[in-house]
Design brief:
mainly alpha, 9 helices, elongated
Length: 182
């Protein structure tokens, strides 16, 4: 009988600690002014403090669902952008923005990337932030462009490349964006 009582007491302590952690996280969301975005309603700190444990549990589940959806959506877009850039580095793509848009709107690809994003979110948790930072940074690297050398360095290397090609590339990008509505 004593063992059962000890296990029950230990479970209550864990539940109290877990409830306190969830309440604190909800309070952080409310104080940061993102209550409506993540909880669906404008709550005050007092509202959260007065809530019953079952209400805290239900609201925390809602918060986790919204947060997870936002994170996986952003991660999915980042993965597709990175894929488009990598493909553009390996192959000639007529319009990267159009390809990116088409990949994002394809239901099969969107479902697969969404599943991958959810899996990463579930398994990596807080470690997903550095991964996202790396993916976003990689997304902003211009793989197709090399660093331009000054005319003095070009003469030293014997390079006679025409610098007008970079302006032609930007004109093509602008034309592509206009055609796709970007």
């Amino acid at each position: 009988m004593e063992v059962d009582e000890l296990l029950f007491q230990d479970n209550l302590v864990t539940n109290d600690e877990d409830l306190k952690r969830k309440r604190d996280r909800l309070l952080t969301v409310v104080v940061s002014g993102r209550s409506r975005m993540f909880l669906g309603h404008q709550y005050s700190s007092e509202d959260i403090e007065k809530m019953k444990p079952q209400d805290i549990e239900a609201l925390y589940v809602k918060y986790e669902n919204v947060l997870g959806a936002k994170m996986t959506r952003n991660l999915g877009k980042t993965i597709i952008n990175l894929y488009t850039k990598a493909a553009g580095h390996l192959f000639t793509i007529d319009c990267a923005d159009s390809l990116n848009c088409e990949l994002e709107s394809n239901p099969v690809i969107a479902n697969a990337v969404g599943s991958l994003s959810c899996w990463l979110y579930f398994h990596l948790g807080n470690y997903l932030a550095p991964l996202m930072a790396g993916l976003i940074t990689t997304d902003h690297i211009k793989f197709n462009e090399t660093k331009k050398l000054s005319s003095k360095e070009n003469k030293h290397r014997g390079d006679t490349t025409d610098t007008a090609s970079s302006s032609d590339n930007s004109d093509q990008t602008e034309e592509c964006r206009q055609n796709t509505g970007w």
